[in-house]
Structure to design on (179 residues):
């Protein structure tokens, strides 16, 4: 039985990894409706190396079998107050907004109760993993596949997205790792 009627969350999901999966499962188990924002939907760069369409495809693969979600493209505006207004307009009333980003929590705390994703995930399912780690493994040609769900790894490999990432952003990713 869901605890919440409507939860919202924005993340970049680039790529969707196993840490995301635990949070996504928890969101869907605890809410009747989940609004999942695809952050930086208008960006294609080092931190956002997958297009909106590719990210949407990866999320749909991971969310197969769930019907209580809507995907919402959320562009970067480089203006916190305008972004907050946009989120409220896109998401409407929510029981809570889920984020681990302190800046986003600060922007939205007057509009919504804030929950951290880890607070929704049972301790035995928590996984300390982030997209930067996955992209770093991808840049080195390492074992990034073990850090993402099987369908996401298959999608990335089938579409040559790992090779494109290494070609376009690999050296920049590795240079950042040494900073």
């Amino acid at each position: 039985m869901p605890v919440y009627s409507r939860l919202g969350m924005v993340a970049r999901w680039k790529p969707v990894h196993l840490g995301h999966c635990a949070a996504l499962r928890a969101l869907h188990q605890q809410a009747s409706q989940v609004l999942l924002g695809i952050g930086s939907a208008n960006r294609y760069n080092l931190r956002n190396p997958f297009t909106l369409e590719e990210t949407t495809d990866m999320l749909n693969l991971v969310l197969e079998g769930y019907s209580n979600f809507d995907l919402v493209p959320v562009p970067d505006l480089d203006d916190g107050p305008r972004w907050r207004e946009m989120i409220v307009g896109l998401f409407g009333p929510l029981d809570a907004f889920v984020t681990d980003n302190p800046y986003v929590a600060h922007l939205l705390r007057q509009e919504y109760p804030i929950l951290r994703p880890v607070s929704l995930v049972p301790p035995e399912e928590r996984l300390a993993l982030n997209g930067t780690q996955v992209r770093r493994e991808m840049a080195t040609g390492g074992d990034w596949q073990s850090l993402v769900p099987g369908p996401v790894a298959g999608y990335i490999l089938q579409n040559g997205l790992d090779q494109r990432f290494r070609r376009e952003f690999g050296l920049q990713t590795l240079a950042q790792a040494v900073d």
About this structure: Residues 8 and 177 are 31 Å apart (CA to CA). The radius of gyration is 16 Å. The mean pLDDT is 94. The chain is about 45% helix and 15% strand.
